[in-house]
Design goal:
CATH superfamily of the largest domain: ACT domain
CATH class of the largest domain: Alpha Beta
Helix content: 25-40%
Number of domains: 2
Shape: elongated
CATH architecture of the largest domain: 2-Layer Sandwich
Structural class: alpha+beta
Strand content: 15-25%
Largest sheet: 6 strands, mixed
Strand order of the largest sheet: 5-6-4-7-8-9
Order of helices and strands: HHEEEHHHHEHEEHEEE
Number of helices: 8
Distance between the termini: 34 Å
Amino acid sequence: MLLIVEEYFKNFPARKRVAELLITLGISIKNSKLYLGDVNVSINAVADAANVNRKIVYHTIEYIEKTYELRSIFERIKPHMSLRDVAPVMGWEVLEVTFKKGKFGCALERIFKIISEKSCEIRQIIGERELIDKSHLTIIFERPIDMNVLSEIKEIEGVDTLTLHTSEIDKKKIVCSFCKVKYCPRKVSFK
């Protein structure tokens, strides 16, 4: 989707920042207004967040609404909720996986197979395949995961890094050469 924004806004860098912000936050455009779900978002708030003036936001909205391809996308954008930051507070674990460029699709099937075989209870999965940067996958588990799961996932071709966010202090035993462990609430990181 960002490639489409890149193409249509290549001559308008300030409008491009606004469009990228709208996509990133899940803000849609309907009838010349900005919405986060069903909540109207102020032009001033978007201008401040994109570090542009209000006029640029208005021009961006106008351009999107006049361009069928862009309007088709921006009318349908919706925000999504991520449990990533609240998971450790809830006693859940978060596994973040980053992939080497071009390896996202190949590795996903194997990751899901490993998780399925180990009967891990999943609360949420969010994955993003990036064309420019490294793709990433975030998996929230309802219970602590078996450390063999991490070992097996790290061995998959295309997996770059693993980061485990946990609220359990006794997880120090999993600190090893291939993962980063972050403890909540102190946010101590081991490399």
